[in-house]
Design brief:
heterodimer, A: mainly beta, 7-stranded mixed sheet, 4-stranded antiparallel sheet, B: mainly beta, 6-stranded mixed sheet, 5-stranded antiparallel sheet, 11 strands, 57% strand, globular
């Protein structure tokens, strides 16, 4: 149980275009989802916390107008990178919390590798 | 500020034992996680400690001392597939997960 999927797994786009990444909890309802980015050989950097039905909470330094997050249901959150530029190229990972455990273990999606040309 | 320290890189031999340390300074404490991450993949859960002591799970064990702000992950009978990054993460008083930078473990034959 507690499987999280992400789509797409890889995407290559031209500079200036927008890219949408989907994160789904397949066999549980996720009260909270998290979006991370990770640069090569670096640790995870939390971008935002997403709760179903409410606005996402962004970490300091993350542009909310550039990284649009929509948590439409208890099983789906989307991250849209708007007007992508080469510096947005990164590994984007989502995670979800079930809320039914004594501790808040995060279940991670497989990640999306974004390359902006 | 909140801080988690772990070594950047470690090297060990196949079949041996390795201990990866993690020290933390956070605003409150609600548990410590260890995750394994292979290159190009998402992290996978290894262990969770919220009380002092040792938690053993197969070849992997995790230890916690809350008074010292210290944890370690012990890997026994190392296999080549254990080559990965190991991430220490602490849940603070707001239940936010604070991540360490990760320890890259290299296993040599």
């Amino acid at each position: 149980g507690a499987v999280v999927s992400q789509h797409p797994s890889r995407v290559i786009c031209k500079s200036g275009t927008s890219v949408k990444i989907e994160c789904r909890s397949l066999d549980f309802q996720a009260t909270t989802m998290f979006w991370y980015r990770q640069f090569p050989k670096k640790s995870l950097m939390l971008m935002a916390t997403s709760n179903e039905g409410s606005k996402a909470t962004y970490e300091q330094g993350v542009e909310k107008d550039k990284f649009l997050i929509n948590h439409a249901s208890l099983t789906l959150s989307t991250l849209t990178v708007t007007s992508a530029h080469p510096e947005d190229s990164s590994f984007y990972i989502c995670s979800a919390v079930t809320g039914d455990r004594g501790y808040n273990e995060q279940f991670f999606g497989p990640g999306t590798r974004l390359t902006v040309l | 500020g909140q801080n988690i320290d772990q070594p950047t890189e470690m090297t060990a031999t196949e079949g041996a034992i390795v201990q990866i340390n993690c020290t933390y300074q956070t605003s409150g404490f609600n548990g410590l996680f260890w995750y394994q991450q292979h290159a190009g993949e998402a992290p996978t859960f290894l262990s969770y400690n919220v009380l002092d002591g040792l938690e053993e799970k197969g070849r992997f064990s995790s230890f916690l001392s809350r008074s010292k702000g210290y944890s370690y992950l012990l890997l026994k009978e190392l296999q080549m597939k254990d080559s990965a990054s190991y991430l220490c993460a602490v849940t603070d008083s707001n239940y936010q997960l604070i991540w360490g930078a990760g320890t890259k473990l290299i296993i040599k034959p």
